[in-house]
């Protein structure tokens, strides 16, 4: 799907406020409500708008630990990737998982109530997963920027 300036404005507004009414959105992007709704539905059907969600303040709900964990796997274990991928789907502490380049195979973002909870997760789940060779944790001390919003300026070809 080719995005035009109006589509980009719609995406920008929805990223700022996913609960905005169609009428308000239409007013902000200078469309009729029916045209605006049609465009939003096209963006959803094209998979550009993946889903809508509420962003929860982790600290406010008692999740004090935010960690990035590099996991290196043993390559001599059969189906190490499939087994690890399946296991991490069962861990609610893992809020992001990525296959990465470099020394490790995976980068995980983990949230835990406190250091004891985090330690239990690492020792009782992560280290006990078949094929895990090494784990390197980086505990976040302070967050400077954390967003899921994609700047619409990145979407415009130069």
UniProtKB/TrEMBL annotation:
Pfam family name, one: AsnC_trans_reg
Keywords: DNA-binding, Transcription, Transcription regulation
GO CC annotation: cytosol
InterPro entries per the UniProt record, alphabetical: ArsR-like_HTH (IPR011991), AsnC-type_HTH_dom (IPR000485), Dimeric_a/b-barrel (IPR011008), Tscrpt_reg_AsnC-like (IPR019888), Tscrpt_reg_AsnC/Lrp_C (IPR019887), WH-like_DNA-bd_sf (IPR036388), WH_DNA-bd_sf (IPR036390)
UniProt domain HTH asnC-type: residue ranges: 3-64
Record GO biological process: regulation of DNA-templated transcription; response to amino acid
GO molecular function: sequence-specific DNA binding
Alphabetized PANTHER family for the sequence: LEUCINE-RESPONSIVE REGULATORY PROTEIN, TRANSCRIPTIONAL REGULATORY PROTEIN
Protein name per its UniProtKB record: DNA-binding Lrp family transcriptional regulator
